[in-house]
Design brief:
binds magnesium ion, Adenylosuccinate Synthetase, subunit A, domain 2, binds guanosine-5'-diphosphate, alpha/beta, 9-stranded mixed beta sheet, 13 helices, Adenylosuccinate Synthetase, Chain A, domain 3, binds 6-O-phosphoryl inosine monophosphate, 3 domains
């Protein structure tokens, strides 16, 4: 006690890393429970920039236990390079643990991710190309390789042979791609297993015991609500459950442990990858927000699509995550943009108005956002540290946003650094 969840409420990159880092300063344990290195979480401390993909953001605090739960898919090659880059910068990784049940992203997953995207032609999802979808496919098909297997050379060798043969068949015969030499994959991945063996531990047990002994736990969300496999913009989603409820399954703890759920949003909206985006700005304002906000993907470097704050999607997030409060980041980016807009509802093709996010793409198609306009602000707010210090137009914008989504805003981000936050 207490156990906090931090989740993304839009299409990712809301600044979860920053919020988690701030809260981690008061946490004993930080847990990642789903997704993989498709995530890119940025933490800025005094000009030092850390980009984390798989390792929980709590790693920057020396005494924080950092756990990777069963629901994560872990690419050992990328993970080791992340470990190395942190260790080179003097960050200890001794407090890291990985659940033996977590699935391993194998090289064929990455190749199949690329091949299936290519096969979809113009209807590609715009994945991060990290093999996430194919790794989760194997998990649910019950032929995946898990972290336990990776660190047991004999088990690994046998599983690489059996699964690898099938994967090679699919790669070559379905997609016309190049097969893997399974012996060299075995040699390479056995080495990764040797390196990672010391981190393996039962994360469900560790989290349960930490909670029982009164420790403060932080569950670090990755991806976001609109990328959820069921409640996102399917099929333009990721292959896991980034929702608050996904945390319990991905860690192996019961929902009664959770005491607080914080949603993170930007003061506007961004999306990287393909799929619908009702409030997208395909004009110079969108371009200005992208440049001022540095909206380029942390993982793939792709330019992020930008648009106005959409209260319909965040209202959906408040509901499906059961949010207690919201953190709104990057309000500073909206300075000098001119008149600001918030989408309050969608007008459907038949003229009716909905305040609820439509469940399917077919229903979403043809929806037009209904906007409310706000006077903008020109002040530099990056040094504000209390809500009262914010210009009146900022306070009005946040107050109306709260009203529209039905959730209290407890934090406002005014810059990328861990100190640039207003806590209410
Ligand atoms: P995450 O995936 O949700 O952790 O977010 P990312 O790290 O991928 O993207 C968020 C970006 O916004 C990063 O470059 C952060 O350093 C930056 N950032 C976070 N909060 C703020 C803020 O309040 N203001 C500004 N200007 N930048 C922020
Ligand atoms: P963080 O944790 C933004 C998007 C991809 C693509 C879709 C499917 O940094 O917020 P995948 O590789 O998961 O199969 O891609 O999901 N996506 C993200 N977009 N932030 C992320 O993570 C994302 N993780 C996946 O761009 O549209
Ligand atoms: Mg990110």
């Amino acid at each position: 006690m207490p156990a906090n969840i931090v989740v993304g409420t839009q299409w990712g990159d809301e600044g979860k890393g920053k919020i988690i880092d701030i809260i981690s300063s008061r946490a004993d344990v930080v847990v990642r429970s789903q997704g993989g290195n498709n995530a890119g979480h940025t933490v800025v401390n005094n000009g030092e920039v850390y980009k984390l993909h798989l390792i929980p953001s709590g790693i920057l605090y020396e005494n924080t236990l950092c756990l990777i739960g069963a629901g994560v898919v872990l690419d050992p090659k990328d993970f080791i390079s992340e470990l190395d880059s942190l260790e080179t910068r003097g960050i200890s990784t001794a407090n890291l643990r990985i659940d033996p049940r977590a699935h391993v992203v194998m090289p064929w997953h990455i190749r199949l991710d690329g091949l299936s995207e290519k096969f979809r032609g113009g209807k590609d999802i715009g994945t991060t190309g990290r093999g996430i979808g194919p790794a989760y496919m194997d998990k649910y098909e019950r032929c995946g390789i898990r972290m336990y297997d990776l660190v047991h050379a004999d088990v690994l060798a046998e599983k690489i042979q059996s699964t690898g043969k099938l994967k090679n068949k699919i790669i070559t015969e379905v997609y016309g791609g190049e097969a893997f030499d399974l012996d060299s994959v075995t040699a390479e991945y056995t080495k990764y297993g040797e390196r990672l063996a010391k981190y393996i531990d039962d994360v469900s047990v560790l989290t349960f015991n930490a909670d029982k002994s009164g420790k403060t736990i932080m569950f670090e969300g990755a991806q976001a609500t609109l990328l959820d496999i069921d409640f996102g913009t399917y099929p333009y989603v990721t292959s896991s459950h980034p929702l608050s409820a996904g945390v319990c399954i991905g860690t192996g703890v019961g929902p009664r442990m959770i005491t607080n759920i914080i949603g993170v949003a930007k003061a506007y909206t961004t999306r990287v990858g393909k799929g619908p985006f009702p409030t997208e700005l395909d004009d110079e304002i969108g371009e200005e927000i992208r440049n001022k906000g540095g909206e380029f993907g942390t993982t793939t470097g792709r330019p992020r699509r930008t648009g106005w704050f959409d209260a319909v999607i965040v209202r959906h997030s408040v509901r499906v995550n059961g949010l207690d409060s919201l953190a709104i980041n990057k309000l500073d980016t909206l300075a000098n943009i001119g008149t600001l807009k918030i989408c309050t509802a969608y007008r459907m093709p038949d003229g009716s108005i909905t305040e609820n996010f439509p469940p399917t793409l077919e229903e979403l198609e043809g929806c037009t956002p209904i906007y409310e306009e706000f006077d903008g602000f020109t002040e530099d707010i990056s040094q504000c540290r209390s809500f009262d210090e914010l210009p009146e137009n900022c306070r009005k914008y946040i107050a109306r946003l709260e009203e529209l989504v039905g959730c209290h805003v407890s934090m406002v981000g005014v810059g990328a650094d861990r100190t640039q936050i207003i806590e209410r």
